[in-house]
C-alpha cells in the first residue's frame, strides 16, 4: 500500500520503508515526523485530504543537496556569469501509514547512518562501525606481529652492446 503526501510544496508517493528526500524540515536525527496532509491512501482519494490519515517517518539527516549550476550568457557580447546553489534537504525513512481504513507499519530498523559516513566508508576513510572502532580489546604484547612481505626484485636486463664507433679517416689524418 502507498500514500501520496504533500510537503514543501511538492507531492511524494511513499510506501512503508521508503527512503525519501524532502525540503528541509525542523528536527533532530532520530525524531519522528508526522505528515497530516495525505492526499491519497491506496485507492482512497481525499477531497482534498483523506480524513484522519497520517504518514509517520523518522528523520535521518538534514544535509545540503546536489549543486545546481546557474549559467547566464549573452551571445556575441562577452557576457558570461556562473553561479551555484545547494538547497538544504531532509532525508526521511517512512515507518508507517495510518488511515483510510488501513494501517501499514514497517518492521525494519531505521539506520541513522548519514550519506557522508557511507561515502567515507566507501573510500576506506572511516571505520566500519563506531562501536568496533572504540571497543577494540587488542593487547599489543600478545597480538601477533605481521612481518612485511619481502619482495624480490626481478633481475635486470643486460644492456645491449654498444656499436663500435666507425673509424673514418678524415682529411687531416691522411
Automatic annotation (TrEMBL):
<dbReference type="InterPro" id="IPR028909">
    <property type="entry name" value="bL21-like"/>
</dbReference>
<dbReference type="GO" id="GO:0003735">
    <property type="term" value="F:structural constituent of ribosome"/>
</dbReference>
<comment type="function">
    <text>This protein binds to 23S rRNA in the presence of protein L20.</text>
</comment>
<feature type="region of interest" description="Disordered">
    <location>
        <begin position="152"/>
        <end position="174"/>
    </location>
</feature>
<dbReference type="Pfam" id="PF00829">
    <property type="entry name" value="Ribosomal_L21p"/>
</dbReference>
<dbReference type="GO" id="GO:1990904">
    <property type="term" value="C:ribonucleoprotein complex"/>
</dbReference>
<dbReference type="GO" id="GO:0019843">
    <property type="term" value="F:rRNA binding"/>
</dbReference>
<protein>
    <recommendedName>
        <fullName>Large ribosomal subunit protein bL21</fullName>
    </recommendedName>
</protein>
<comment type="similarity">
    <text>Belongs to the bacterial ribosomal protein bL21 family.</text>
</comment>
<keyword id="KW-0694">RNA-binding</keyword>
<keyword id="KW-0687">Ribonucleoprotein</keyword>
<feature type="compositionally biased region" description="Low complexity">
    <location>
        <begin position="162"/>
        <end position="174"/>
    </location>
</feature>
<comment type="subunit">
    <text>Part of the 50S ribosomal subunit. Contacts protein L20.</text>
</comment>
<dbReference type="GO" id="GO:0005840">
    <property type="term" value="C:ribosome"/>
</dbReference>
<dbReference type="GO" id="GO:0005737">
    <property type="term" value="C:cytoplasm"/>
</dbReference>
<dbReference type="GO" id="GO:0006412">
    <property type="term" value="P:translation"/>
</dbReference>
<dbReference type="InterPro" id="IPR001787">
    <property type="entry name" value="Ribosomal_bL21"/>
</dbReference>
<keyword id="KW-0689">Ribosomal protein</keyword>
<keyword id="KW-0699">rRNA-binding</keyword>
<dbReference type="InterPro" id="IPR036164">
    <property type="entry name" value="bL21-like_sf"/>
</dbReference>
Amino acid at each position: 500500500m502507498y500514500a501520496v503526501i504533500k510537503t514543501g510544496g511538492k507531492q511524494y508517493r511513499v510506501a512503508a520503508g521508503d527512503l525519501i528526500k524532502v525540503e528541509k524540515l525542523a528536527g533532530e536525527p532520530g525524531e519522528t515526523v508526522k505528515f497530516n496532509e495525505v492526499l491519497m491512501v491506496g485507492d482512497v482519494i481525499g477531497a482534498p485530504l483523506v480524513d484522519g490519515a497520517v504518514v509517520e517517518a523518522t528523520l535521518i539527516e538534514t544535509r545540503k543537496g546536489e549543486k545546481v549550476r546557474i549559467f547566464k550568457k549573452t551571445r556575441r557580447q562577452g557576457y558570461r556569469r556562473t553561479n551555484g546553489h545547494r538547497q538544504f534537504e531532509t532525508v526521511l525513512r517512512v515507518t508507517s501509514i495510518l488511515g483510510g481504513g488501513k494501517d501499514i507499519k514497517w518492521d525494519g530498523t531505521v539506520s541513522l547512518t548519514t550519506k557522508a559516513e557511507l561515502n567515507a566508508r566507501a573510500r576506506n576513510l572511516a571505520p566500519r562501525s563506531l562501536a568496533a572502532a572504540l571497543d577494540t580489546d587488542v593487547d599489543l604484547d600478545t597480538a601477533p606481529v605481521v612481518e612485511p612481505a619481502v619482495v624480490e626484485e626481478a633481475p635486470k636486463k643486460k644492456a645491449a652492446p654498444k656499436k663500435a664507433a666507425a673509424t673514418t679517416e678524415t682529411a687531416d689524418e691522411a
